[in-house]
C-alpha cells in the first residue's frame, strides 16, 4: 500500500473511533503511547528529560503532547502545531425526554455553527461522557458510544410543505429533536436509566449506582469513505477538525528526537475557545511554564518558538465560484492552504508563511493561499487566540474542504498526507525558527 493510501486508511479508522472530543483524545492518547509518549498528571510534579516524550490531557477532551529535544532543548524554541477536537453537532439537553404521539424523542441543543439541513434523514448514534456515582459513593466518569444507528430526524414530506425547496427554514427548538423509538400509551423511558444500562454494557466493572449527568452528542453512523471516480476525495463527518488532529499526531509520531516539539489539540473552538480546555483558556500556557524553569525562560521560549495552527480551509465550490476572491480560491488536492487576513482573523505573517513555504518546497508539496472576499466576513481559528494569548508567532494553514460544518464534509485524498509530510519536516527542522 502506498504512503498516501495507508495514511488515508488510518485517518478513516481514526475518524470512526473519534466520535466525540472525548473519544478523539482517548484514541490519540492510545496511539501516542504506542509511539513512546508517557502520560503526565497535571497535579503531579514533572521530571522531564532530554529525549522524553510526554502528554497531558484536560477535561478528557483536550490534549497536549510534547517532546524534549536531545540536541535543542526548550530554550531553543518549540516547534508547535495546534488543532481542535470539537465539531458542530447536536448535544442532548439535561432533561431531554419527549413523548409526542407515542414517539420517544430527545431534546437537543445545537453546538457551534452547525449546517442543520444535512442532519435530516441520517442514521444517527449517540456518544460522549457520563458522570455517575459508583456503589462506593464516589464520583466517576466513563465514555459511552452506542456505535449503531439508534435515532433519526425525519424530514417533513414535500406533500405537507409544497414550498420546501424554495423557502424551508429550520427551527432548532422544534424541528430537530431526534426520534429514538415508539412508546405504548403513557409509557415513559428515563434517559439516565438508558445511560446506566449502556455504561454497564461498555464497562461491566464500573459498579454504577446512579447516572448523575452527561455530555452527549448525536453523530452520523456513516463511516468515512474514499470516493470519486479516481478516488480523489475523502468524505466523512468531523473532518473539521479531526483531520488536523490526526495529521499533527501522525507527524509527531515521526519526530526524530532532536529539536523540542509540541502538539496541542484544544476543545471548544467551535464556540469561541473560552474554557479550561479551549485555546482561550490556560492549558497551553500552563504546560509551557512547566517545561521551562521560570518566567524569564518562558518569555524566551515563546519568542524562539513558532506555532502552526492547522484548521480546514474553504475550497472553491464549482457551483459557487463567486463566493471566493478570484485569485484565492483553493482547489482540493492542490496542496494545503495558507490562510491570510489583514485584520488578524488569521495569525499568519510573512515570516511564518515564508518558513512554511520553504519547508513545503523541500518536501515537494504544493502550497495555496486563501484570502476571504473583501466584502465578506472572515472566520477565525485558534491561531490568533494562541498568538494573542502567549505571544508566539503563528501560521494559519489548513486542508481545503467542501461542506464545512455539515454532518458530512469533503476533502482531497492527497492534501492531508501532504500536510503531514510538511509538519513532520517542521518537527524535525534543526534551523532557527526566527528570521535573521
Automatic annotation (TrEMBL):
It is an enzyme of class 3 (hydrolase). InterPro entries: Peptidase_M18, Peptidase_M18_dom2. One of its GO terms (molecular function) is zinc ion binding. Signal peptide: none annotated. Keywords: Aminopeptidase, Hydrolase, Metal-binding, Metalloprotease, Protease, Zinc. GO terms for biological process: proteolysis. Its EC number is 3.4.11.-. This is M18 family aminopeptidase. Its cofactor is Zn(2+). The lineage of its organism: Bacteria, Pseudomonadati, Pseudomonadota, Gammaproteobacteria, Cellvibrionales. GO terms for cellular component: cytoplasm. Belongs to the peptidase M18 family.
Amino acid at each position: 500500500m502506498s504512503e498516501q493510501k495507508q495514511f488515508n486508511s488510518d485517518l478513516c479508522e481514526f475518524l470512526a473511533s473519534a466520535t466525540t472530543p472525548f473519544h478523539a483524545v482517548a484514541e490519540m492518547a492510545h496511539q501516542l503511547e504506542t509511539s513512546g509518549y508517557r502520560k503526565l498528571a497535571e497535579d503531579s510534579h514533572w521530571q522531564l528529560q532530554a529525549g522524553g516524550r510526554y502528554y497531558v490531557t484536560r477535561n478528557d477532551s483536550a490534549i497536549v503532547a510534547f517532546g524534549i529535544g536531545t540536541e535543542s532543548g526548550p530554550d531553543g524554541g518549540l516547534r508547535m502545531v495546534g488543532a481542535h477536537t470539537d465539531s458542530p453537532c447536536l448535544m442532548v439537553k439535561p432533561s431531554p425526554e419527549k413523548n409526542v404521539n407515542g414517539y420517544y424523542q430527545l431534546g437537543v441543543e445545537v453546538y457551534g455553527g452547525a449546517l442543520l439541513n444535512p442532519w435530516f434523514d441520517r442514521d444517527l448514534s449517540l456518544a460522549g461522557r457520563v458522570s455517575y456515582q459508583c456503589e462506593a459513593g464516589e464520583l466517576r466518569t466513563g465514555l459511552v458510544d452506542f456505535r449503531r444507528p439508534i435515532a433519526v430526524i425525519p424530514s417533513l414530506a414535500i406533500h405537507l410543505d409544497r414550498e420546501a425547496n424554495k423557502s424551508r427554514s429550520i427551527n432548532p427548538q422544534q424541528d430537530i429533536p431526534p426520534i429514538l423509538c415508539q412508546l405504548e400509551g403513557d409509557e415513559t423511558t428515563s434517559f439516565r436509566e438508558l445511560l446506566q444500562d449502556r455504561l454497564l454494557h461498555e464497562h461491566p466493572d464500573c459498579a454504577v449506582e446512579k447516572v448523575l449527568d452527561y455530555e452527549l452528542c448525536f453523530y452520523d453512523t456513516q463511516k468515512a469513505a474514499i470516493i470519486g471516480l479516481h478516488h480523489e476525495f475523502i468524505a466523512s463527518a468531523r473532518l473539521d477538525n479531526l483531520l488536523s488532529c490526526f495529521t499533527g499526531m501522525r507527524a509527531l509520531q515521526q519526530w526524530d528526537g532532536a529539536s523540542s516539539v509540541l502538539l496541542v489539540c484544544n476543545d471548544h473552538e467551535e464556540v469561541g475557545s473560552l474554557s479550561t480546555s479551549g485555546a482561550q483558556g490556560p492549558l497551553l500556557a500552563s504546560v509551557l511554564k512547566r517545561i521551562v524553569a521560570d518566567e524569564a525562560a518562558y518569555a524566551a521560549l515563546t519568542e524562539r518558538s513558532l506555532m502552526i495552527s492547522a484548521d480546514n480551509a474553504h475550497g472553491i465550490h464549482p457551483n459557487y465560484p463567486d463566493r471566493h476572491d478570484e485569485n484565492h480560491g483553493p482547489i482540493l488536492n492542490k496542496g494545503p492552504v495558507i490562510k491570510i487576513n489583514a485584520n488578524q482573523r488569521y495569525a499568519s505573517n510573512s515570516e511564518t508563511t515564508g518558513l512554511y513555504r520553504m519547508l513545503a518546497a523541500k518536501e515537494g508539496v504544493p502550497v495555496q493561499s486563501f484570502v476571504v472576499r473583501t466584502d465578506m466576513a472572515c472566520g477565525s481559528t485558534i491561531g490568533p487566540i494562541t498568538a494573542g494569548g502567549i505571544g508566539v508567532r503563528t501560521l494559519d494553514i489548513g486542508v481545503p474542504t467542501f461542506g464545512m460544518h455539515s454532518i458530512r464534509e469533503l476533502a482531497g485524498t492527497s492534501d492531508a498526507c501532504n500536510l503531514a509530510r510538511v509538519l513532520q519536516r517542521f518537527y524535525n527542522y534543526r534551523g532557527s525558527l526566527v528570521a535573521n
